[in-house]
């Protein structure tokens, strides 16, 4: 079993080619000087990144307002999602690891639920529920409550519904490894609760907090299923990409994909660098 | 812990975010679509209780056929993913050593950090009539005309298997990691062939990983939207698309809610059956992944 046969090795090689073929194709054709994202190869160009649209009729990603607005919308969603995921995740982790109360087992089981609910169902259920709340409140208050209608605030809530599970799990796993005698020592030395939290507990948790924040950022940026159901007139990046892919896109979509891959690669390397010292 | 009022207040405050999250974003919304799925429109803006939306599902062939198709194809995709991923996971866990092992695992992870839509775009560019594969086949003279590989069941299955691989490889490799080499050697020493050792020793040992990976891949596949719609085109016919159509295109929310409940039921039923058949619990299964 430890000496792999040639067939097995060939299979492994073929598998990795299969894994990377679609990504390579996307990246390479971002530089193709053609109005269509397909062969033949017509020469190297940066037009699909920075072109003004004079050559091919459509501008490059970094000057096209459609793409720039979508990227901005994605950040408008991802930033609050990541911040809230870390803040609420920390409190949840504390509840799971430190607090004792009846019903804790039920609560910790319920926190896993969002992971087994299909994203589309999460989306429609939140859409339907908040519409009912909006209808009721608007009648009562006699005013429009647009943030409860499809749009970026609802997308943020929809994404949080399952990203909170992930951030809670990541932070709770780290908190479980914490040696509580460190806190006790600090208390014995006369430190206040706030000070212990600030100088002992939070620094210990910080790799998990950063990790959970980055994972939340990434999941928010790439979420499609839940977002699709809750999106209003300001589409985040995946929704715009989906629309363009259905209509038949220009290589600008390859360019935006390549930028996304580079961004993800950047986040992944920060992740790898911050994760190392804890081992 | 004592029950002093201060501590009770602290506990209450710490619990508040979790209760708000699970209550407002999970429990109440699901109660809402459950109620919605049992309401029928009798006149504009007037709804009554009834099973009409579910009856509609069983009487309209397009709906239940799409549902059955989604379920069957998802099971097929899960099985295919398992078979394709097993040799890879075994290699990573048992054969590769040191840096090669870390690198192989990292290379598996990388494509899955990238958005699902980017990966699907890659497959569209490879498979479409004017795409890379068709072009390549013409260039080497295997075919004289363009071939359309996109917009059929094969393309949908390929895309879904590709999307599920990582979620199968990681739990499998984790489970295989703890397999004692001595046990495998004993199997060979006792005269077992490669096949018997694989079937009687390696696969049973990997069972927790197999269950965890299969459940995750099945859930992701059943709930997928972009891959079947983009790679399958009009022939994609995925159930999530029906939910989207009822909610967003036709604005028939009660019907869409009923479909949502059915999808949730299908997903939960298969997960539950998988766990029951193999005697695993959800918590430990999710931890495997």
Offer a few descriptive terms.
heterodimer, A: 279 residues, mainly alpha, MetI-like fold, 71% helix, B: 289 residues, 2 domains, two-stranded antiparallel sheet, 13 helices, 2 strands, 3% strand, globular
CATH evolutionary superfamily of the largest domain in chain B = MetI-like
CATH-wise, what's the superfamily of the domain at 66-248 in chain A? Answer: MetI-like
Q: What separation lies between the terminal Cα atoms of chain B?
A: 34 Å
Q: What top-tier CATH class of the domain at 66-248 in chain A fits best?
A: Mainly Alpha
Query: Which bin fits the share of residues in helices of chain B?
Result: over 70%
- Portion of residues within helices of chain A: over 70%
SSE string of chain B:
HEEHHHHHHHHHHHH
What is CATH's topology name of the largest domain in chain B?
Answer: MetI-like fold
CATH topology label of the domain at 66-248 in chain A: MetI-like fold
Organism (chain B): Microvirga makkahensis
Main location (chain B): membrane
GO biological process, one term (chain B): transmembrane transport
Membrane topology (chain B): Multi-pass membrane protein
């Amino acid at each position: 079993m430890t000496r792999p046969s040639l067939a097995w090795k060939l299979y492994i090689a073929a598998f990795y080619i299969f894994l990377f073929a679609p990504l390579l194709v996307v990246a390479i054709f971002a530089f193709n000087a053609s109005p269509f994202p397909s062969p033949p190869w017509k020469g190297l160009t940066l037009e699909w990144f920075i072109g003004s649209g004079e050559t091919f009729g459509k501008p490059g990603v970094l000057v096209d307002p459609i793409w720039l607005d979508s990227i901005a919308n994605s950040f408008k969603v991802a930033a609050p999602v990541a911040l809230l995921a870390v803040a609420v995740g920390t409190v949840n982790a504390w509840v799971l690891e430190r607090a004792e109360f009846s019903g804790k087992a039920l609560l910790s089981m319920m926190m896993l639920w969002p992971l087994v609910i299909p994203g589309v169902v999460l989306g429609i259920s939140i859409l339907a529920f908040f519409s009912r709340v909006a209808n009721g409140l608007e009648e009562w208050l006699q005013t429009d409550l647009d943030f409860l209608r499809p749009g970026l605030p609802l997308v943020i809530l929809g994404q949080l519904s399952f990203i909170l599970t992930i951030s809670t799990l990541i932070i709770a796993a780290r908190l479980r490894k914490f040696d509580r005698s460190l806190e006790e020592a600090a208390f014995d030395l006369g430190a206040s609760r706030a000070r212990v939290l600030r100088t002992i507990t939070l620094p210990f948790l910080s790799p998990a907090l950063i990790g959970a924040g980055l994972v939340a950022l990434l999941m928010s940026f790439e979420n499609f299923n839940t977002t699709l159901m809750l999106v209003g007139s300001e589409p985040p990046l995946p929704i715009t990409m989906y629309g363009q892919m259905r209509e038949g896109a220009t290589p600008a979509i390859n360019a935006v994909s390549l930028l996304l891959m580079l961004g993800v690669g950047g986040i992944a390397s920060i992740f790898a660098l911050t994760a190392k010292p804890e081992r | 812990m004592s029950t002093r009022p201060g501590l009770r207040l602290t506990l209450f405050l710490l619990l508040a975010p979790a209760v708000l999250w699970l209550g407002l974003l999970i429990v109440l919304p699901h109660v809402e679509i459950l109620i919605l799925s049992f309401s029928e429109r009798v006149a504009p803006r007037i709804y009554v209780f009834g099973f009409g939306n579910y009856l509609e599902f069983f009487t309209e062939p397009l709906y239940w056929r799409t549902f059955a198709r989604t379920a069957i194809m998802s099971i097929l995709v899960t099985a295919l993913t398992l078979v394709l991923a097993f040799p890879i996971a075994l290699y990573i866990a048992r054969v590769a050593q040191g840096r090669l092992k870390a690198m192989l695992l990292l290379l598996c992870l990388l494509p899955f950090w990238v958005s699902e839509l980017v990966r699907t775009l890659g497959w569209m560019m490879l498979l479409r009539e004017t795409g890379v594969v068709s072009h390549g086949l013409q260039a080497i003279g295997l075919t004289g005309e363009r071939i359309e590989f996109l917009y059929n069941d094969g393309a949908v299955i390929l895309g879904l298997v590709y999307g599920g691989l990582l979620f199968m490889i990681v739990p499998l490799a984790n489970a295989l990691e703890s397999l004692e080499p001595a046990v495998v050697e004993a199997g060979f020493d006792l005269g077992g062939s490669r096949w018997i050792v694989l079937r009687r020793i390696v696969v049973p040992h990997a069972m927790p990983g197999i269950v965890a990976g299969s459940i995750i891949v099945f859930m992701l596949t059943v709930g997928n939207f972009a891959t079947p719609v983009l790679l399958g085109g009009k022939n994609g016919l995925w159930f999530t698309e029906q939910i989207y159509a009822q909610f967003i295109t036709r604005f028939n929310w009660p019907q869409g809610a009923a479909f949502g409940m059915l999808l949730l039921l299908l997903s939960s039923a298969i997960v539950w059956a998988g766990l029951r058949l193999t005697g695993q619990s959800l918590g430990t299964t999710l931890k495997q992944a």
